[in-house]
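Much of the work behind modern protein science is quiet bookkeeping, done one molecule at a time. Below is the pair of lines this work produces for a single protein:

***
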Amino acid sequence: MSQAVEIAAGALDAIPQLSVLGEVTGFRGPNARSGHCYFQIKDDSAAVDCIIWKGAYLKRTFDLRDGMQVSFKGSFNLYKPTGRMSFVARSFSLAGEGLLRQQVAQLAEKLRREGLMDETRKRRIPVFCSRVAVVTSLSGAVIDDVKRTLRRRNPLVELVCVGAKVQGEGAPAELIEGLRRAAAITPAPDCILLVRGGGSFEDLMTFNDEELARAVAACPVPVVTGIGHEPDTSICDMVSDRRASTPTAAAESVAPAMTELADVLEARHQRLGAAMASMIGSDQVDLEMLDQRGRRAWDTYTARLGDALDAAACRPCLNDPTFMVERRESELALTADRLSGAITRSVGSFRSNFERLPERLIASTSGLDGKRHALTLASSRLEHQGRTMLSKPASDLGRAAASLDALSPLKVLARGYSIAYSEDGVATSAKTFKPGDAIRVRMSDGNVSATVNAVE
């Protein structure tokens, strides 16, 4: 038996590294003590035990669990004591639907970081849509469901159908073109329905396309999606302005039923009637109060007017028309007497002041002689003090001028001296010159230019 097992082990060792694709089942791991993982890989007709050592599992990019479709790379191994064969996986990666779901999750996270799924970006769908465009396959049952739903709920909604593939190669590009055509319809629709029926995860992968998702987010008309069935959520659902669980639910969400509209109108009619009744009742109370206030104000006004008329009737001017004229004549005569007296008093006062004017002029000029004499004395004293103050500075100035004149170089030159100049200026030493140098000699009456022959 040992030899047979040895031969089998050798045969397995001779098999090169393999890639095995299958479904994970019976997963146990990582083991609490060893960290290894134990499970089976199976397909429709076979199964094999699988082992992943701790070191290989630590390098994983996702956790294994039952039901996953996974591709394993490794080799077969035979445990000789029991003769049990296992597949030892050294690496693994998602395959089939599992790989697709991982890619979809990565794309969803990318678009979420860009803000395409933010609720603040999404636009409001009108409550009452009068014109709706639908982008879907025109050959399936979905378009019939949408038409039937809209006719049943609200036949006034106009439906425009734009056909496009919803599955298979080229479907994302056709749906993008369908969205563009639907948005360009004139007059523009209130919203666009992007719908398709249910299917497998792979069938719905068209609506997980990145370019299609970006087209949905950038569409100038609000987009309502109804893709697959309740459990399915595609990338297009996440970036659309509204997501419905099914195509029928999408159609219902943009077309309120006529009965619902009637109920809404009735409720609003009742609220409007109640509000108007309340307003009219309040206005009627206000009107009655204003009427009472107006009546009281009119009664008060007429009473005051009657009192004023009674008082006016008692005034003399109304009983005797000549009374006012006589009173005005009396006032004018009194005013004329007052004016005549005022003029007489003013003329007398002016004459008295004019007669005293020569005396006042003589009295005011009598003091001018004394002031003239005082001014003459002050002028004499000022002139004397000025001469005294200026005599000493003038004497000092003369002496200073004489000293400066005595020290002047011109005076020295006049006594027979001269000044020698080199190219650098006044020469104070014979060492300044050397034979051949130019020399200028200044005398009292002019300059002499010469050349030095010798320096002694």
User: Anything to note?
Assistant: The two ends are 139 Å apart (CA to CA). The mean pLDDT is 83. Residues 128-256 form a domain with the Rossmann fold fold (CATH 3.40.50.2300). Residues 258-313 form the longest helix (56 residues).
